[in-house]
């Protein structure tokens, strides 16, 4: 970055590994394993940190207004505020004590519920439903799907068949349907205890109502761009910052965006990291009054489309859990899909694994990395949600050290 003061405005003074939220909401006693509560472990030297949620951006004045009423001036503003999924993500500005209490409260409600409906049949919804069934195998868990299917159409029929087989093994039901308009609440908020004992669905659904105690929401309800003026945002449900090819606001050139821009690339870590590099480069060029460089997604990532087709499908963490590696780049696809037990390259894999039929952590040697042992290997290597490996590589240090 060019010389100058760098200020980071964060809504929380602790970090949380939200990729493990489907587990720690079901097993709240594990929550602190996915939290970094000591600023010294994750703050970067030379950077000014302000822990106070932003409530508005005033481009004409070039200031960010914080919840406390304080204003922070800027020459260049990078907006990287992420997206909303109730309960999976923290409410902005929530303290660690309040978040811990929330997780414990919902964990207790999940424990006590007889039937839980998970609204959303994407990767988060399936992982959440399976995590519940792994911990509470006798509990009724229903995934509500608008199409009646699961995941996106980008996955192969073979992968989708394996997913459905695991759901059947665990006893997770999939029902085609959508919540009736305005019920309960707005359809985008979780309901801890449904007083009526049932939820109503639209006429196009397979059934008109489902008897249940709880509703969980497992889809993105929008981007965290409410702080931005309307004229800087795109139309539609997500309301992204309307950016050009430089990831720069079309109307306010001093504003750049990572994740919450108009590229619609999705929120894969690899894609966000690539966007961040483009923004850092262009911020430097902007401050130097030099021509900016168009953002480009690497061809390998573009072909993989991880924003829509993630490379891992996790269907329950722990005993009975199941993991599918798919849609992987070269050479990882060869290392996992072809070599197995684990990461061995022929001809070494035969003597190392004890023969072609020996099953290792990552599947059969020279077979697809799919199954129960694959989840066991993933947890042993990376931890739940990858917490042992991925947070440090993304600058999120100190997880589980509180």
Description:
The longest helix has 19 residues, at 269-287. Helix content is 26%, strand content 19%. It is α/β, with parallel strands linked by helices and 402 residues long. The chain is globular. The protein has helices spanning 21-24, 39-42, 96-112, 123-135, 157-170, 269-287, 299-304, 332-338, 349-353, 372-382, 390-393, and strands at residues 6-10, 15-16, 35-36, 47-51, 54-58, 63-66, 71-73, 77-79, 83-84, 115-119, 140-145, 172-176, 198-200, 209-211, 214-217, 222-223, 255-257, 312-315, 322-325, 359-360, 363-364, 370-371. It has a four-stranded parallel beta sheet with strand order 12-11-10-15. Strands 5-6-7 form a three-stranded antiparallel beta sheet, with no helix packed on it. It is built from eleven helices and 22 strands.
How much is the radius of gyration in Å? Answer: 22 Å
- Please outline the major beta sheet: 4 strands, parallel
Q: Which percent band covers the strand fraction?
A: 15-25%
Helix content: 25-40%
Spans of 5+ residues with little confidence (pLDDT < 50)?
A: 341-360
| Class computed from helices, strands and strand pairing | alpha/beta
Query: How far from one another are the termini?
Result: 31 Å
């Amino acid at each position: 970055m060019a010389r100058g003061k760098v200020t980071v405005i964060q809504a929380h003074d602790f970090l949380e590994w939200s990729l493990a939220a489907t587990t720690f909401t079901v097993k709240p006693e594990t929550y602190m394993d996915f939290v970094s509560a000591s600023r010294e472990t994750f703050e970067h030297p030379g950077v000014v940190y302000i822990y106070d949620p932003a409530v508005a951006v005033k481009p004409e004045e070039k200031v960010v207004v914080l919840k406390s009423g304080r204003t922070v001036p800027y020459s260049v503003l990078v907006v990287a505020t992420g997206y909303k999924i109730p309960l999976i993500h923290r409410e902005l500005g929530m303290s660690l004590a309040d978040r811990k209490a929330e997780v414990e409260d919902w964990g207790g409600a999940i424990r006590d519920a007889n039937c839980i409906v998970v609204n959303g049949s994407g990767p988060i919804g399936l992982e959440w439903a399976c995590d519940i069934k792994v911990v509470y195998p006798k509990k009724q868990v229903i995934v509500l799907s608008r199409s009646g299917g699961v995941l996106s159409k980008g996955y192969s029929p073979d992968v989708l068949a394996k997913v459905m087989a695991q759901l059947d093994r665990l006893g997770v039901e999939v029902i085609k349907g959508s919540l009736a308009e305005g019920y309960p609440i707005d359809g985008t908020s979780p309901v801890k205890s449904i007083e009526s004992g049932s939820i109503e669905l639209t006429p196009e659904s397979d059934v008109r109502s489902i008897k249940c105690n709880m509703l969980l929401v497992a889809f993105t309800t929008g981007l965290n761009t409410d702080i931005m003026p309307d004229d800087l945002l795109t139309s539609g449900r997500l309301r992204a910052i309307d950016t050009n090819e430089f990831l720069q606001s079309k109307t306010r050139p001093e504003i750049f965006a990572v994740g919450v821009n108009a590229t619609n690339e999705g929120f894969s870590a690899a894609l966000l990291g690539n966007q961040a590099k483009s923004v850092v480069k262009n911020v430097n060029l902007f401050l130097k009054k030099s021509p900016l460089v168009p953002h480009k997604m690497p061809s390998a990532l573009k072909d993989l489309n991880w924003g829509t087709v993630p490379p891992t499908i996790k269907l329950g963490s722990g005993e009975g859990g199941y993991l599918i590696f798919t849609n992987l780049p070269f050479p990882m696809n060869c290392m996992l899909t072809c070599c197995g037990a684990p990461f061995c390259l022929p001809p070494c894999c035969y003597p190392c694994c004890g023969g072609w039929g020996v099953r290792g952590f990552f599947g059969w040697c020279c077979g697809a990395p799919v199954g129960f042992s694959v989840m066991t290997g993933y947890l042993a290597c990376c931890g739940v949600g990858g917490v042992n490996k991925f947070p440090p590589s993304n600058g999120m240090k100190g997880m589980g050290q509180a």
